[in-house]
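Input structure tokens:
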């Protein structure tokens, strides 16, 4: 029974996802699925960052860097023309392994590029490797020093994609091919490309939440909570805090990279704004308002606030709104709005004394 209760929110979420898709199709508002799909991919990053901040106690202001690494590496591999070097040994090896594809760009010119799925795996592997390399020295820092170091990493990635002609500079990369989704199903009619991506995005969210819930309830999850409470006490009882911090950092980077890859291929491109510091502030604000140690709280706030942002509700004050949210939450609800006293007063099962 305890295990059924643990997975009940996932079942409810799956039903809600299906209900929303059917409702939008019935009412002729299926265009909302585009914003909801993008929201889901951002939510994937948020849940991974929530694990790092809320359970390992490590503040990161550079996770947009891993998001950008995933998106940009996959975009570059699937759009950069390899025709000029097709006789090189490495390119020939990729061709024999059936990892290359011939296609045409938006101007009708022939291209030879890496296939989407191998590029996706390469992008995620690159993000994991970078996370492992920088995580070893960076995670030795604490508090605002750690925040500043991760922010510096994010700034480095932002400047690289802004200055590199390979990554399109300020224009970013466009003409990124879509994944071949759900083979055997048409991309027209009721089950359109938009609908397919909607289910893929929310399927990733459900899978990610399933993995994180099980991780938190496992022995490593209990170790993470001990590290968050007191790293010194955790070390005293034999927990390898450095190892667990690094593992959590790499896992959260993987979530960000997967989100970056899939969103880039869904949008057909990526720009430098995805690596901006204000995006990192936005994600931290969302986790703070949902509750640092609440995966469901962070995800729900991420869905609501990102959807409103994508719908243009905040207008040109978008970044200012998320900055103000972060300041207000830190001042008046440091544990998240879901743990405010008002919710305890509304709980009819609460008994005084």
């Amino acid at each position: 029974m305890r295990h059924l209760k643990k997975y009940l929110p996932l079942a409810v979420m799956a039903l809600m996802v299906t209900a929303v898709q059917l409702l939008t199709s019935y009412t002729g508002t299926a265009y909302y699925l585009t914003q909801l799909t993008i929201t889901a991919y951002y939510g994937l990053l948020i849940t991974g960052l929530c694990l790092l901040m809320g359970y390992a106690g490590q503040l990161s202001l550079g996770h947009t860097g891993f998001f950008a690494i995933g998106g940009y590496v996959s975009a570059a591999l699937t759009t950069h023309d390899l025709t000029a070097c097709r006789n090189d040994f490495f390119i020939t090896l990729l061709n024999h392994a059936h990892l290359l594809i011939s296609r045409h760009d938006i101007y009708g010119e022939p291209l030879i590029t890496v296939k989407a799925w191998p590029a996706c795996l390469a992008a995620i592997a690159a993000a994991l490797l970078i996370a492992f390399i920088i995580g070893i020295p960076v995670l030795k820092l604490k508090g605002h020093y750690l925040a500043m170091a991760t922010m510096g990493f994010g700034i480095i990635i932002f400047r690289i994609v802004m200055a590199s002609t390979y990554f399109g500079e300020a224009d970013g990369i466009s003409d990124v091919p879509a994944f071949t989704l759900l083979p055997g199903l048409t991309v027209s009619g009721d089950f359109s490309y938009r609908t397919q991506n909607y289910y893929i995005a929310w399927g990733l969210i459900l899978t990610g939440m399933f993995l994180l819930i099980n991780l938190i309830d496992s022995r490593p999850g209990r170790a993470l909570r001990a590290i968050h409470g007191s790293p010194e006490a955790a070390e005293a009882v034999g927990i390898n805090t450095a190892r667990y911090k690094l593992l959590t950092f790499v896992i959260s980077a993987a979530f960000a990279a997967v989100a970056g890859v899939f969103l880039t291929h869904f949008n057909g491109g990526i720009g430098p704004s995805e690596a901006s510091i204000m995006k990192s502030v936005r994600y931290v604000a969302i986790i703070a308002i949902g509750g640092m140690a609440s995966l469901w709280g962070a995800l729900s706030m991420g869905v609501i606030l990102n959807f409103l942002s994508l719908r243009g509700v905040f207008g040109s004050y978008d970044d200012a709104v998320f900055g103000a949210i972060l300041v207000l939450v830190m001042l008046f609800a440091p544990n998240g709005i879901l743990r405010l006293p008002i919710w305890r007063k509304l709980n009819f099962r609460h008994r005084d004394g």
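Residues 186-190, 348-353 have pLDDT under 50 and may be disordered. The chain has one domain: 2-345.
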